[in-house]
Amino acid sequence: MVDRVATGISGLDKMFYGGIPAESQVLLTGGPGAGKSLLSFEYLYRNAKAGNASIFFAFEEDPEKIIENAKAAFTDLADIDAIIKSGRLVVDREEPTGELISATNKDEDLFQFGSIMTKIESRISETKATCVVIDSVSILGIMVKDVGTYRKYMLALITNLKRLGVTSIMTMEMENPDRNKLTFKPEHFIFDGIVALYQTGESTRRVLTAEILKIRGTKHSFTTAPYEITPSGFKIFAAEDITPY
Fold first, then answer.
1. Which tens digit of pLDDT belongs to each residue from 25-37?
2. What share of the chain is helix, strand, coil (3-state, %, to 5)?
3. Helices (H), ranges, 59-137
4. Could you give the maximum distance between any two Cα atoms of the chain, in Å?
5. 141 with 174: CB under 8 angstroms?
6. Rounded distance, CA 162 to CA 61, Å?
7. How big is the CA angle at 240 (ends 193 and 45), to the nearest 5 degrees?
8. Which one of 79, 169, 219, 228 is separated from 15 by 20 to 30 angstroms, measured CA to CA?
9. At residue 6, what are phi and psi to the nearest 5 degrees?
10. Within the chain, which residues score under 50 in pLDDT?
11. Distance CA 9, CA 100 (A)
12. φ and ψ at 29, to 5 degrees?
């Protein structure tokens, strides 16, 4: 039996055969407007409602904006403010841009990244979070010009989160939101799982679909599923009902 963390998102847990394997670090990739931040927020919201301490690390946007966007999209979820006030769901601002861009060499760069990780680890320990989101790790790739150094950072980030025993979702921009033009970079393969959100068709009639590309240590759905972002949350139309393993 595989211990799992249910996302609470309609259809997604079916695709995961019951939920994300506990202590997995999952990459959520997609183009602008696919709903990466919203899906990640809902994962934490559902877990916070279930009693699991959750924390959202915003690398690019202010926490107030993250919460505002979630409330605007999920208008039926009237208790978002109450759950945040309870402390079960924390939206935290971490800004690696200033620290990493100020580094003058690789050694200093690595030191600055270590400082960022220390802050993240401290907040996870303080909040006793078991569910974590980092939105988005794409900023690290923009700030760190050396490809080899960037990949070391990503590996260090995943290793540290695994050591902390959390189940995380980390978002990353997809270079092309069309499934037929999907490409992989070496850093993608260090994650335990990859979920892709695709957008096809014209801008006025986009078709949104989700796919689990991989998840280590367990089976998962291999079917691409359409989804909608509704006032009550994501609705992913999984192809079949799957009995959790």
1. 999 999 888 999 9
2. 40, 25, 35
3. 63-73, 80-86, 96-101, 106-127
4. 53
5. no
6. 25
7. 50
8. 79
9. -65, 135
10. 242-245
11. 35
12. -120, 150
C-alpha span between 29 and 17 (Å, rounded):
20
Q: Tokens 């367990």 correspond to what residue?
A: 218
CA distance 91 to 188: 25
**51, 125, 133: which is closest to 92 by C-alpha?**
133
| Distance between CA atoms of residues 73 and 76, nearest Å | 9
Q: In whole angstroms, what is the distance from residue 67 CA to residue 189 CA?
A: 31
Residue 80, amino acid: I
Residue 185 pLDDT: 72
Cross-strand bridge partners of residue 93: 58
Only one residue has tokens 């401290």, namely 122
Structure tokens at 135: 């939105």
Q: Please state, in angstroms and rounded to a whole number, the distance separating the CA atoms of residues 1 and 21.
A: 10
Q: How far is Cα 45 from Cα 77, in angstroms, rounded to an integer?
A: 9
For 25, phi and psi rounded to 5 degrees? -115, 110
The reported pLDDT for the residue numbered 111 is 63
Best CA proximity match to 74, nearest among 233, 236, 243, 222: 233
Beta bridge partners of 169: 26, 133
Measured between alpha carbons, how far is 89 from 56 in angstroms, rounded to an integer? 8
Query: Which residue ranges form the domains of the chain, and what is each CATH number?
Result: 4-236 (3.40.50.300)
Alpha-carbon distance of 165 to 159, in angstroms, equals 10
